[in-house]
Amino acid sequence: MILRSVEALVDAIEPGQLVAIPPDYSGVSMAATRALLAAGRRGLRLVAVPTSGLQADLLVGAGCVDELEAAAVSLGEAGPAPRFTEAIKAGRIRMRDTTCPAVHAALQAAEKGIPFMPLRGLIGSDILAHRADWKLAANPFAQGEDPIVLLPAIAPDVALFHAPRADREGNVWIGRRRELATMAHAARRALVTVEEVVDGSLLEREEVAAGVLPAMYVGGVALAPRGAWPLGCQDLYDADDAELARYASAARGEAGFAAWVQAFLARPAQAA
User: Fold this and answer.
1) Contact indicator for 13, 43 with CB cutoff of 8 Å
2) What is the residue-level pLDDT of the chain in tens, covering all 272 positions?
């Protein structure tokens, strides 16, 4: 059965696995984040597609993350991500700096089943000097000298995100958030929390089928109304800017962070 509880969904995420997570504006599963925090999960490796904010900051601050690959980690208008910043300064996590195009290109390589993807725009940058796994190669089709960077494919164990709806067959409607499709295609499986579960197949209706992630990519779905809060969910609800500001202020210190997390874990999901 593809439908399960949020707790059962995150039980499938094991220490050491590479988990792809979306940016704050795309469909972050804060319901799954809450379950990971409650379970005290450790040893996660995260790849942000291509950036992260609240989700990464929470998981890093709680000691759940060993490694993070991201183009940026920020709370946006609420300011820097305080627990991430503190962890980097203290050397508690391994940071793999990247760029937005590099993350997408490397995921597209895994999506296509190829070992690497070439990408321009990195030569001469500081970031290239710190990524030993990115290789400089000669363009074999060029008439003259034309170096290009080869990025190894990123193939996550899990793509974890939140979406507006799924059907009982496991098809998930992601709408215009195509990065979620790329994440799911590149990963071994997608684990998805949704606002609602509907009867009938979402693939049967021509007007919505183009925005549907087929069930063949989905390893599990959990019903979690308002499961992105305090972040937003597409056109259904906006991010709670006041709550994000409260988090940004509280998380500047360990005690404030712990108190915010405790309140977050105690809050009924539907009340979010």
Assistant:
1) no
2) 478 999 999 999 999 999 999 999 999 999 999 999 999 999 999 999 999 999 999 999 999 999 999 999 999 999 999 999 999 999 999 999 999 999 999 999 999 999 999 999 999 899 999 999 999 999 999 999 999 999 999 999 999 999 999 999 999 999 999 999 999 999 999 999 999 999 999 999 899 999 999 999 999 999 999 999 999 999 999 999 999 999 999 999 999 999 999 999 998 765 45
Give the residues across from 118 on adjacent strands.
Answer: 150
Task: Measure the CA–CA gap between 185 and 131, rounded to whole angstroms.
Answer: 25
Backbone angles phi, psi at 33, to 5 degrees: -60, -45
For the segment(s) 3-98+155-266, the CATH number from 3.90.70.10, 3.40.1080.10, 3.50.50.60, 2.60.40.10 is: 3.40.1080.10
DSSP 107-154: HHHHHHT-SEEEESS-TT-HHHHT-TTSEEEE-TT-SS--EEEEEE--
Confirm whether pTM is higher than 0.90: yes
Per-residue HEC secondary structure of 152-177 comes to ECCCCCEEEEEEEEEECCCCEECCCC
CA 30/CA 261 separation, integer angstroms: 12
On the 0-12 / 13-18 / 19+ scale of CB atoms within 10 A, 16 is: exposed
- Give CA angle at 58 (228, 151), nearest 5°: 90
For the record, the structure tokens of 201 come out as 């197949």
The Cα–Cα gap between 103 and 80 comes to 21
Burial group, residue 44, by CB count within 10 angstroms (0-12, 13-18, 19+):
buried
